[in-house]
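Project channel, design review

CF: Before we commit to the hydrocarbon metagenome constructs, I'd like one complete example in the thread so the newer folks can see what an input/output pair looks like. Taking Ribosomal protein l11 methyltransferase.
RD: sounds good, go ahead.
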Amino acid sequence: MSDLLRLEICVPGVPPVVGGLVEEALPDPVDPVREGLTAWLAPRLAQGWEETDTPEGAIFRIHLDDNPAGRDLADALAAAWPHLAIRRESVASQDWGAAWKAFFTPIAVGEIFEVLPPWLSHEGHADRTPIIIEPKMAFGTGHHPTTALCLERFGELSGLGRIAPGMRFLDLGTGSGILGIGLCRLGLSGIGLDIDPQAVFCAAENVLANGVAAAMRTAAGSLDCLAPGERFDVVAANILAQPLAAMAPHLAARVAPGGVLILSGILAEQAETVAAAYRRTGLPEPVIRLSGEWAALSWS
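CF: and here is what came back for Ribosomal protein l11 methyltransferase:
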């Protein structure tokens, strides 16, 4: 296996607003640099990244394959953000697992799910539904708000009976497979699609690790992989705002009458644009849930 590139990006914090107002009563200041960097990274890093808050600001930590594509991305990052301090170092491949193990901890999501890595699967809580995810180079570990928003909505709609055992799902942009696996845990069956073959490989491994191979199949591709007219009771797509808006008529057509549609990977300021694209297909106003700068839209 090749070595990896580790990039650490230092983003200075926004100074607190002071004056005649009580500082504790002020909302958290918006950090345009941090938001801009997040928006720049999101379409380029399907595997995600780590963010750590410090008294001086935030540190973004990224791991890339140490190959021409990885180095090109590192160069593009430095060129796009020349005013930020970026530290680049090579990490031996054998340290990759150790680095993830130090970062990846169990996380409770909503009222139902708990996402755990395989080496901590024995530490799950009895009152939570476990999802075992091997953190690799595919998006979706439960730590990112967009993934968590979708899983939380699954739990809510399951409690309301809108997502129920026996239903069929489509997980578009499956990444690690986490959303489809979560739906399988609720008694559904379906398919996870991703245009990245490496993501499909990771998803297939996680499907096996969770014992849901009989309920979920994976494939490389997009909506054109599906049979003409095939519809699903639950459609989930955690991608990005622009492709979600562009495919609105085609994706909405894959939702069975009375079905559920959940979209994420959307920045909060992009939510209305995506919602408008789906209103044009005849859907009503969505329920919008926010987590920090990210949004999830759902129709049920």
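RD: helpful, thanks. The radius of gyration is 20 Å.
CF: Residues 10 and 59 are 5 Å apart (CA to CA).
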